[in-house]
Amino acid sequence: MSRLIIIYFFSAISLLALSQSGGRNTYEFLNLPNSPYIASLGGTNVSHYQKDPVLVNSNPALLRPAFDEKLSLNYINYLSDINFGYISYSKNIENIGMFGVGMQYINYGKFINADETGEILGNFYAAEYSFNMFYSYPLSERLNAGASFKTIYSSFWQYFSSGLALDLGLAYVDTSNMLSAGLVIKNAGFQLKPYVKGNREPLPFDIQIGVTKKFRHAPLRFSVTAKDLTRWNLSYKSVFSQNYNLLQEEDPSEKFIDKIGKIGDEFIRHIVIGFEIVPSDAFYFSFGYNYRRRTEMVIPTAPKLTGFSAGFGLNLSKFSISYGIASYHLAGVSNHLSLCLNLNQIYKRV
Fold first, then answer.
1. Residue 186's CB: how many other CB atoms inside 10 A?
2. pLDDT tens string 12-56
3. CB neighbours of 96 closer than 8 A, spacing ≥ 6?
4. In this model, does residue 125 exceed pLDDT 50?
5. What residues pair up with 193 in beta bridges, in sequence order?
6. Considering the domain boundaries, does residue 85 fall inside one?
7. What is the pTM of this model?
8. N or C: which end of the chain has fewer CB within 10 A?
9. Which band of pLDDT confidence, cut at 50, 70 and 90, is reported for residue 11?
10. Are 250 and 206 spatial neighbours (Cβ–Cβ below 8 Å)?
11. Where residue 91 sits, what CATH number does that domain have?
12. Which range marks the domain in which residue 342 is found?
């Protein structure tokens, strides 16, 4: 079984072609952070070894026996009238592996249906869904492999689409050194039915890698995650910028130090940083910084906390609750709430 998982994992890597980024793909909702924990750490994390079963939506290899009989309910109040959420359940089957199921949804709200003359014909709604199945299996004492299979359905008034996607992940956990790392291939798949016949759009394919480290003699934990690894250049120039060049040609007179600065800027756009204060296993404060989000969404005259995020959580034997907040723009933030029930403890006989 472990050899088969490895074969599938590296076979998917070999299929890597041209990369895509935001605005170039369909089903972008698959990249939204469903967990308050993930949202508070900057929006992306594939290595965190925490008792939050929603983490497997970021990396299926993080699914482990500690998540047995856990039910997770998550709700996110996003920007404007947009809401999304996630529900998952996981089960350990001895000598076979960990299994899990989940459903992710996003509701874009109610829209007015009007014709070209402005006559109102009624209302319509837009929403997208993903039904997920997870599986993980230990390859060794410290190395875990996992996969998630996603069936996707999208509805925008008269336009409908469906698709399939696959995530493949590896997770390395060294509890003695309080170190964990993860690697995941996300959203490798295709549209079964495009919105417009004959126009199939790519999925938000990505490769992500990260590491998490806790200090032995201090209640601190750091996470560093690299994303969008299939595409180096993530920057863009706005057409509203006075320095915008339609040909996007490189200026030959550009100084060497400026070129080095551009390389550094491109590199850090791939990096998401998370920091936690963990006074005990039962409680945490978390903070995150997403440089790319801040660079692209900030208003120079009023930068505020764009790109920053924070959260906290309480972990008890029967349940855990967590909250996260992320600042995307001066105009709004997202609020994330989660309740995780440990059914083993709730229904345990005294």
1. 26
2. 433 333 333 446 889 999 999 988 999 999 999 999 887 778 889
3. none
4. yes
5. 162
6. yes
7. 0.84
8. C
9. very low
10. no
11. 2.40.160.40
12. 2-116+126-234+273-296+308-346
Instruction: Categorize the per-residue pLDDT at 168 as very low, low, confident or very high, splitting at 50, 70 and 90.
Output: very high
Beta strands in 175-249 (DSSP E): 179-193, 206-214, 220-226
Residue 159 lies in a domain: yes
**Secondary structure class of 210 (helix, strand, coil):** strand
For 249, the token pair is 């040609």
Asked if residue 322 lies in contact with residue 52, where contact means CB atoms within 8 angstroms, the answer is yes
Is 78:334 a contact under the CB 8 Å cutoff?
A: yes
In a domain, 253, yes or no: no
Report how far apart, in Å, the C-alpha atoms of 77 and of each of 46, 57, 106, 126, 164 are: 23, 19, 10, 16, 26
Structural contact between residues 150 and 131, judged by C-beta atoms closer than 8 angstroms: yes
Give CA–CA dist 311/284, Å, rounded: 8
Q: Residue 51: helix, strand or coil by DSSP?
A: coil
DSSP, res 32: S
Count the domains in the chain: 1
Written as six digits, the tokens of 17 are 């072609």
Write out the two tokens for 290.
């997403």
Look up residue 26 and give its DSSP letter.
S
Nearest CA among 171, 168, 166, 184 for reference residue 50: 171
In a domain, 291, yes or no: yes
Q: How far apart are CA 90 and CA 266, in angstroms?
A: 38
Q: How far is CA 47 from CA 68, 169, 202, 241, 298, in A?
A: 19, 10, 26, 38, 28
Q: What is the mean pLDDT of residues 263-274?
A: 90
| pLDDT tens track for 280-324 | 888 999 999 999 999 888 888 888 889 999 999 999 888 999 999
